[in-house]
Write a structure and sequence with these properties.
- This protein is mainly alpha-helical and 167 residues long.
- The chain has 6 helices and 4 strands, in the order ααααββαββα.
């Protein structure tokens, strides 16, 4: 499930990324192109937020539904991440509109890297995005994306515990 859906999603993302960035397909980890390097970095940040939400709700982060169980991988955190994957792609597209390929350098292995100053900028932008308040049609109040991740984890825990009929 995880690979098929992601492939379809990234074919769509490829259409909105300017051609001069040469984004052919999604590559993780060890990306050699700047687009995938940015996506990897921000997906890791998003995954961390989802892992924290699992821990806070007492969910076992490694027992997922959509992602295959493999050693050392927090499958449930990856499951929660899927609903918020668009945040990373949104931020990457915004960055690509402002930056150029020359803003990146390659390491000895040919992987795309950011300077520490640019890395700090990217992380600060993503933190600001997580603090952006949004609401769903079922919510009377807006919550930050960071809170929405926790709301999702709480909803899943309640559903699994039989405290709710819906997730």
């Amino acid at each position: 499930m995880e690979g098929v859906a992601a492939a379809i999603w990234y074919r769509g993302v490829r259409r909105i990324i300017p051609e001069h960035w040469l984004f052919e397909k999604r590559v993780a980890p060890h990306a050699k192109d700047p687009v995938n390097a940015l996506m990897n970095l921000l997906q890791s940040c998003l995954h961390r937020e989802c892992r924290i939400a699992c821990w806070e709700e007492g969910l076992h982060e490694r027992i997922g539904f959509l992602h295959q169980d493999r050693s050392g991988h927090a499958s449930l955190a990856s499951d929660l991440q899927e609903s918020f994957r668009h945040l990373v792609d949104r931020e990457v597209v915004a960055i690509l509109d402002e930056w150029t390929v020359s803003d990146f350098r390659n390491d000895e292995a040919g992987r795309a890297r950011l300077s520490s100053e640019m890395l700090q900028q990217v992380l600060a932008r993503f933190e600001a995005l997580l603090d952006l308040r949004v609401s769903t049609p079922l919510q009377e109040t807006s919550f930050s994306y960071r809170q929405q991740i926790r709301i999702q984890a709480r909803s899943l825990r309640r559903y699994l515990a039989g405290e709710s009929d819906a997730f």
